[in-house]
Write a structure and sequence with these properties.
By secondary structure, the protein is of the alpha+beta class. The chain has helices spanning about 5-20, 35-45, 55-60, 90-100, 115-125, 130-170; strands at about 20-25, 50, 80-85, 105-110, 115. Strand 4 (about 105-110) and strand 5 form a beta hairpin.
Length: about 170
C-alpha cells in the first residue's frame, strides 16, 4: 500500500470514527470468509458496516476524534463494526459473538465514551432507535385513545338512559 492509499484509508476511518453512533472492536482470528460475509450481511441489515483495517492506520485516524482512547483496543487481528444507530452495531456484534466463539468483542466507543466488553453488552441490551420510536408513539397515542373513550362514554350513557325511559313509558 503506497502513501496515497494509506492517507485515503486514514481519511475513511476518520469519517467512520467521527460519524458513527457506536464502534465495536473485536478480534476475528480464525474466522472463515463465509463467517465474515455473514457478519457483514447481518450488519448491513441494520444499516451498519464491518471494516478490517491496519491497527496503526486506525490509531492515526483516531487522533483528534472523540474516541481516541479506543486506540488501546487496537491490537492483534481486529475488526471494526459500526453504525450510526448507537445500539445496532453492539446488538449485532453481541449476538454474533454468542454464536461464533472466534469473534471476540474487545470493547468499543460510543462518542467520547470508551466501552469495555461489559459496556458493549450493556449497550446491546438497550432498545434500538426503532423500538424507542415505537414506544414514544404508543405513549403519545394512549392519551388520545383515552380521551376519545371519555368523550364517547357520556353519549352511550345518555342513549342507554333514554332507552330505559322509553321502555318504561311504553309499559
Amino acid at each position: 500500500m503506497d502513501r496515497a492509499q494509506k492517507e485515503k484509508v486514514v481519511d475513511e476511518l476518520g469519517q467512520i470514527f467521527a460519524s458513527s453512533g457506536v464502534v465495536v472492536v473485536a478480534h476475528y482470528a480464525g474466522m472463515t470468509v463465509a463467517q465474515m460475509q455473514d457478519l457483514r450481511a447481518k450488519m448491513r441489515e441494520v444499516g451498519g458496516s464491518v471494516r478490517v483495517a491496519k491497527n496503526k492506520l486506525a490509531k492515526i485516524a483516531l487522533e483528534g476524534k472523540p474516541g481516541v482512547k479506543m486506540g488501546d483496543l487496537l491490537t492483534g487481528m481486529t475488526v471494526l463494526a459500526y453504525t450510526e444507530d448507537p445500539v445496532a452495531a453492539a446488538k449485532v456484534s453481541e449476538a454474533y459473538a454468542k454464536a461464533n466463539d472466534k469473534f471476540v468483542i474487545l470493547g468499543g466507543a460510543m462518542g467520547e465514551t470508551i466501552l469495555d466488553q461489559a459496556g458493549v453488552k450493556a449497550v446491546a441490551s438497550m432498545p434500538s432507535r426503532e423500538e424507542l420510536i415505537a414506544q414514544i408513539v404508543g405513549m403519545i397515542g394512549a392519551p388520545a385513545a383515552s380521551i376519545a373513550g371519555a368523550i364517547g362514554a357520556p353519549a352511550s350513557n345518555i342513549a342507554s338512559i333514554l332507552k330505559t325511559i322509553e321502555e318504561k313509558a311504553a309499559a
